[in-house]
Design a protein that fits this description.
single chain; 228 residues; mainly alpha; 10 helices
Length: 228
């Protein structure tokens, strides 16, 4: 799973697409043409946005990688959901403007952070263990801002904006739930094999690499845009 997401990242970086979590093409045209409340399509857009956003998926995959109890999965995913829901809605409705490249760079950092934590890096190198619940909730706020910046780049009509954004956020949660179910099924099967012990470190090393690639890609785009 980590190798698949990393491969998608490499393809996206090479060809300059906006697959990470951009909204373009017919979806962008639909949003621009929306003149009032249109709940169901925005729910669909939110779900599509999440299940095709590998930066968000990599972070969620890293979060649940070593969570063996469903209670813990629910707690961590809920913290992440609360965080990104707050900033998604606040970012759009309150028109909080932050450079999208910088936000996405921090999202990349969040992916690397979680993989580094899974590898025991904080304990072994720094001798401390950050509070994972605080970290996941805090990074959820950043991921929500990433979603908000993509929506702000579109021509959102003020008429029906609140219900449409609520619908989009519901869709994001549905998409996240779909991805989570897939991840849990994969992890449940993988943990039953001997290969999990052998390749868990390698998988997190791939996630760590992907996180830094995401961060580097966005920072390069930020500095390139500043030169134009």
């Amino acid at each position: 799973m980590a190798l698949l997401l990393l491969s998608l990242l490499i393809v996206d970086s090479n060809f300059g697409t906006t697959f990470a979590h951009g909204i373009g093409g017919r979806d962008a045209a639909f949003v621009a043409a929306t003149k009032g409340p249109d709940l169901v399509p925005f729910i669909y857009l939110g779900a599509k946005h999440m299940v095709t956003g590998y930066d968000h998926l990599l972070f969620i995959f890293g979060v649940i990688f070593f969570l063996y109890r469903m209670k813990d999965v629910v707690i961590y995913v809920t913290l992440f959901s609360i965080g990104h829901s707050i900033t998604l809605l606040a970012g759009v409705l309150l028109k909080i403007e932050i450079n999208s490249y910088l936000v996405d760079a921090v999202i990349g950092l969040s992916v690397a952070y979680k993989a580094f934590d899974n590898l025991g890096g904080f304990k072994s190198i720094f001798g401390v263990q950050p509070n994972n619940k605080v970290a996941v909730g805090s990074f959820g706020l950043i991921h929500g801002l990433g979603l908000a910046t993509k929506l702000q780049a579109l021509r959102l009509n003020g008429n029906g904006l609140v219900p449409n954004m609520l619908g989009f956020n519901v869709g994001v949660e549905i998409g996240q739930l779909i991805a989570l179910v897939v991840f849990l099924v994969v992890m449940l099967q993988w943990r039953r094999t001997a290969s999990f012990e052998r390749f868990a470190v390698a998988a997190n090393a791939l996630i760590l690499t992907a996180g830094f690639m995401l961060m580097e890609y966005q920072l390069a785009a930020y500095f390139s845009a500043g030169k134009v």
